[in-house]
Amino acid sequence: MELDPRDLARSNSVIQQTLSSSDFPRLEAALPAGRVPIVLCLKFSLDENDRVRIEGTAEFTPAIECHRCLRVVPTRVSQGLNICIVRSGKEADEVMEFADPVIHADRMMDIQALVEDDLLLGLPRLAAPHGVECSSPRSTESGVRPDRQPDALSTVLDLKEQMGLK
Ligand SMILES: [Zn+2]
Predict the structure, then answer these.
(1) Where are the beta strands (DSSP E) in the chain?
(2) 107 CA to centre of ligand 1 in angstroms
(3) Cα 63 to Cα 50: distance, rounded to the nearest angstrom
(4) Residue 54 is part of which domain span?
(5) Measured between alpha carbons, how far is residue 165 from residues 89, 156, 157, 160 in Å?
(6) Ligand 1 centre and the CA of 90: distance in Å?
(7) DSSP reduced 3-state for 143
(8) Which of 16, 111, 127, 136 could make an S-S bridge to 1, C-beta 3.0–4.6 Å?
(9) What is the mean pLDDT of residues 5-22?
(10) How far is the CA of 129 from the centre of ligand 1 (A)?
(11) Of all helices (H) and strands (E), which one includes residue 166?
(12) 157 contacts: CB under 8 Å, gap ≥ 6
């Protein structure tokens, strides 16, 4: 879906849009089990420096295989979005403190390009979807604290290993 962020920001538009995880190639590659709808709610505005700001949420419920016990658990993800559109890497550094910069120069852009990085950021917490309730019968990491959250890449590698793909 193509949109014009600056035009939407000028009119303080709110967009509600349901996409599929298959619209996000990197996200789909990181999700082990099936396609799910992704519900986006995006609020556009201009800040005092005339930058486009986008705040909102992305909600989806992928079926995640727990890397500890290997059960597949539907897991609700609600990822907060706080994006600032910038024109250069230098400007990106300036806004990094208060928002996630997305570098973009043209008028129109894909909604996917806008939010995919943030969706990926929501994934690490899925490593053990039922968290402290996990009975972990197959775990070999008995000394690991329950709040430990591996990064997304090592989770994917773990899953591949468990599925014999490595
Ligand atoms: Zn588990």
Answers:
(1) 2-3, 14-20, 37-46, 52-60, 63-65, 72-74, 77-86, 100-103, 109-110
(2) 45
(3) 40
(4) 2-162
(5) 37, 11, 9, 5
(6) 43
(7) coil
(8) 111
(9) 95
(10) 7
(11) none
(12) 166
Contact 55, 81 (CB under 8 A): yes
CB neighbours of residue 61 within 10 Å: 14
155 alpha carbon to ligand 1 midpoint, in Å? 13
**Ligand 1 midpoint to CA 134 (Å):** 4
Please tell me the distance between residue 70's alpha carbon and the centre of ligand 1 in angstroms.
Answer: 6
CA–centroid distance, 117 to ligand 1, in Å, is 26
Helix extents (H) in 96-144: 111-121
Q: How far is the CA of 144 from the centre of ligand 1 (A)?
A: 14
With a pLDDT cut of 70, the percent of the chain lying above it is 73
Number of domains in the chain: 1
Residue 58: per-residue pLDDT: 94
pLDDT of the residue at 117: 86
